[in-house]
What we know:
Strand 1 and strand 2 form a beta hairpin. The chain folds into 2 domains: 71 residues, no CATH class; 35 residues. It starts with 5 loop residues before the first helix and ends with a helix. It has 4 helices and 2 strands. By secondary structure, the protein is mostly helical.
Amino acid sequence: MVKLDAGSTLKRLRNRYRLVVMNDDTYEEVATFKLSRLSVYIMLSTIFVLLVGLTVALIVFTPLKYYIPGANTDYKSAMELRDMKYKVDEANRQILLLQQHDAGLRKGPLRGDNTIVLDTTKLIIPKDEISND
């Protein structure tokens, strides 16, 4: 393999090239550019940094940030949302308990329904436990 030293790499970056844009039908030169590899690299890097900067500025300084999931939450609003969720869950639990209480009162003795269901299950007690008393 050919080893490249720093001097030859720097020379290749600084070599000048000419880019000519020509009309295909008339062979007329439309534009001419004198470039080097280093200038092309710097130009492309600058364009990339500018595009990234403009994109970030567009997202940060406009309402577009609200459409990015997870990007617009901060600690305080997350805590407030969690507290509100706990309060809503507690309110739902209280409503269910009140509905059960109301259903129990509706089918109970307040309605005039005096039928009482007795537990008629027969208990079987072994004789060993009776004699020990």
